[in-house]
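Q: what sequence does this backbone want?
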């Protein structure tokens, strides 16, 4: 009798956030790239500690191989000290942390241009992005409607964003003692658990 080859369970990754704009953005990433092993959830959380605990519970309940709590510094009014204070909790709950200082607009901006100075305000990045993407706003409404193709339009510049992030992180570490963004590490895990992006159905948008 022929033996069946055992089918191993697919390893899955959870992207958890309390920010609707971030949730909408990564939902587009999931759809654009056909990342079937990725789950994106938006939870109610007034602070980072709550987001970490909620993500940790979701990781166990959903049997996710990997879980990330994703947030902006502006969102929770964080400082380097408050982030460092939350890290032991994240480690104990097996939750990885991905952040941007001040917000996700900074990460998107790095796809377009390098930064050689520290920028504190999200509005500066929003204004710069609005010159390339009309009506840009850090909102779920924008990411779902006018900006639903922003991820695809920036996709070809991802490697540039990673390089720019590395340089900007050095500036932030010198000024604040922590990295300005950990999104490159998040994307490393996304690739590990989801594989290469399948953009075969989006060639027309990629050509824009």
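A:
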């Amino acid at each position: 009798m022929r033996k069946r080859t055992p089918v191993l369970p697919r390893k899955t990754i959870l992207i958890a956030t309390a920010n609707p704009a971030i949730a909408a953005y990564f939902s587009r990433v999931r759809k654009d790239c056909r990342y079937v092993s990725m789950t994106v959830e938006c939870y109610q959380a007034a602070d980072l500690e709550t987001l970490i605990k909620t993500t940790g519970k979701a990781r166990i309940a959903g049997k996710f191989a990997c879980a990330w709590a994703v947030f902006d510094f502006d969102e929770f009014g964080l400082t380097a000290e408050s982030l460092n204070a939350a890290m032991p909790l994240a480690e104990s709950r097996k939750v990885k942390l991905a952040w941007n200082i001040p917000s996700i607009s900074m990460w998107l901006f790095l796809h377009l241009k390098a930064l050689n100075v520290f920028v504190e305000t999200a509005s500066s990045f929003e204004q710069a992005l609005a010159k390339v993407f009309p009506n840009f706003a850090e909102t779920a409404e924008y990411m779902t409607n006018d900006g639903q193709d922003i991820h695809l339009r920036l996709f070809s510049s991802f490697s540039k964003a990673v390089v720019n992030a590395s340089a900007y992180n050095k500036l932030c570490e010198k000024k604040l003692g922590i990295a300005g963004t950990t999104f490159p590490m998040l994307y490393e895990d996304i690739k590990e658990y989801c594989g290469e992006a399948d953009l075969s159905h989006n060639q027309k948008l990629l050509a824009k």
